[in-house]
């Protein structure tokens, strides 16, 4: 199963097609998450290792999806495998259902790395972490509404599935965007309780926040939209100033970017201390995980001592404590994998080498497109980037409309045939195990793909 040379498009994907036919019979749409689908059918994977994927037909790929960025050390890294096996052997179980020391160790680690974290609670996904963050913010402030930016994704639940990929005719003016549902089945209540803001437009953001200040509990944002469109420093500084002035809690959703810009995430890079931070993806070392961290005063609303004491009996007191629970929260195996992930990131030159290779790949890809006279720029931050087929600046969701999406789709389809894997139209996530050979292979594949689609 050797990786084919860039330029070979003789791959068969019949096994994936057959698997998809089977899957459609028992799984809606043949996929376990809507974002995993692409036409004519997704590619079914069978094996992986390092920076490499093998599909059901035995085709080999350099992987830049990396499970949507979660696998910062690639597939099956030995240090993570060893940590997981050691945890199970030492503990004699995969889960206690009680407090355990690894919960403390990971929380101490996170609080030492992330400026906005004094205390931590665990969840089982980034989605759960952002959802808990909103509940904490509402409980702490007593205000019913939230604010989010147009184009920002925070998970698949009712309050935040608004204005992620909206039609501009429905979304209204760029400086005053309106909430547009991303899915059927969303209650109108949340349309009235979710304020949409324009990313990287401080003047308009300030005007909208001041208009609704008495109602907004929190502003939740991706400091790097989609993991690849960074906020301007002045914009971040202004957002932090405004939220403090108006008594609005600032939540940084670092599910995509945690550990990918720096060990302390976006907040370390920007020098901004949020009130609450949501983490996921990289934190689990390939296992399901989420975490919410924040200032002690705010996180105290989760303290069960203020509510119902299970040993005292009687009824709960929902006016004093915010309920949060989950059977698998703080799972020992997951935390062992997560700590091994952080351990390796803290080794000398590991993150530096990953960042340097990311820059090299971006630079060489831009050179290829320039040589082929095709407008393209890479847009990103840290070890994540995306390819924008345009000469224009990309600062927010509305700017994406100038990108040649049809050309991007055709290039991505050719890249799959050539052995470069990322879900079509998706961002590229680098790992600590992508090699110089991987970079050269990827650059060559892009050149071959461009020659094919441009005739």
Automatic annotation (TrEMBL):
Q: Which keywords annotate this record?
A: Aminotransferase, Cytoplasm, Isomerase, Porphyrin biosynthesis, Pyridoxal phosphate, Transferase
- From what superkingdom does this record's organism come? Bacteria
Pathway given in the UniProt record: Porphyrin-containing compound metabolism; protoporphyrin-IX biosynthesis; 5-aminolevulinate from L-glutamyl-tRNA(Glu): step 2/2
GO:BP terms for this protein? porphyrin-containing compound biosynthetic process
Instruction: Name the coenzymes or cofactors required.
Output: pyridoxal 5'-phosphate
Any one GO molecular-function label of the UniProt entry:
transaminase activity
Q: Could you tell me the EC number(s) of this protein?
A: 5.4.3.8
* InterPro entries assigned: Aminotrans_3, Aminotrans_3_PPA_site, PyrdxlP-dep_Trfase, PyrdxlP-dep_Trfase_major, PyrdxlP-dep_Trfase_small
Report the enzyme's class at the first EC level: isomerase
Q: Which CDD domains match?
A: OAT_like (cd00610)
Pfam families, alphabetized: Aminotran_3
Catalysed conversion reaction: (S)-4-amino-5-oxopentanoate = 5-aminolevulinate
NCBIfam families named among the record's database cross-references: PRK00062.1 (NF000818)
Name the family: Belongs to the class-III pyridoxal-phosphate-dependent aminotransferase family. HemL subfamily.
Q: What is this protein called?
A: glutamate-1-semialdehyde 2,1-aminomutase
What is the species of this protein? Halobacillus litoralis
């Amino acid at each position: 199963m050797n990786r084919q040379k860039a330029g070979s498009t003789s791959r068969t994907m019949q096994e994936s097609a057959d698997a998809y036919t089977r899957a459609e019979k028992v799984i809606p749409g043949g996929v376990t998450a809507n974002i995993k689908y692409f036409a004519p059918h997704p590619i079914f994977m069978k094996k992986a290792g390092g920076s490499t994927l093998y599909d059901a037909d035995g085709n080999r790929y350099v992987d830049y999806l990396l499970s949507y960025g979660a696998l910062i050390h690639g597939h099956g890294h030995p240090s993570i495998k060893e940590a997981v096996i050691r945890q199970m052997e030492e503990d004699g179980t995969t889960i206690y259902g009680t407090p355990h020391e690894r919960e403390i160790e990971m929380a101490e680690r996170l609080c030492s790395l992330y400026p906005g974290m004094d205390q931590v609670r665990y969840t089982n996904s980034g989605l759960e972490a952002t959802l808990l963050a909103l509940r904490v913010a509402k409980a702490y402030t007593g205000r019913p509404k939230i604010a989010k930016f147009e184009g920002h994704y925070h998970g698949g639940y009712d309050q935040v599935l608004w204005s992620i990929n909206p039609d501009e005719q429905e979304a209204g003016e760029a400086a005053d965007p309106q909430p547009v549902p991303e899915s059927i089945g969303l209650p109108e209540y949340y349309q009235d309780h979710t304020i949409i803001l324009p990313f990287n437009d401080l003047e308009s953001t300030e005007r909208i926040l001041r208009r609704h200040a008495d109602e907004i509990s929190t502003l939740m944002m991706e400091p790097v939209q989609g993991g690849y469109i960074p906020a301007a420093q002045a914009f971040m500084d202004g957002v932090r100033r405004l939220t403090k002035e108006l008594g609005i809690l600032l939540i940084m959703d670092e599910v995509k970017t945690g550990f990918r810009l720096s060990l302390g995430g976006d907040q370390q890079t920007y020098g901004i201390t949020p009130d609450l931070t949501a983490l996921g993806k990289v934190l689990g070392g390939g296992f399901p995980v989420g975490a919410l961290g924040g200032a002690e005063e705010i996180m105290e609303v989760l303290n069960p001592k203020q509510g119902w004491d299970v040993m005292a009996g009687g009824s709960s007191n929902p006016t004093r404590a915010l309920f949060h629970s989950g059977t698998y929260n703080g799972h020992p195996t997951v935390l062992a994998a997560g700590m091994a992930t952080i351990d390796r990131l803290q080794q000398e030159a590991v993150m530096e080498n990953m960042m340097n290779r990311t820059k090299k790949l971006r630079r060489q890809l831009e050179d290829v497109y320039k040589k082929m006279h095709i407008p393209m720029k890479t847009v990103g931050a840290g070890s994540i980037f995306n390819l924008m087929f345009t000469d224009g600046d990309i600062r927010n969701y509305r700017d994406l409309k100038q990108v040649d999406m049809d050309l991007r789709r055709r290039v991505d389809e050719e890249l799959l045939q050539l052995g470069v894997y990322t879900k079509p139209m998706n961002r590229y996530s680098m790992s600590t195990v992508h090699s110089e050979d991987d970079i050269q292979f990827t650059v060559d594949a892009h050149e071959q793909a461009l020659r094919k689609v441009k005739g």
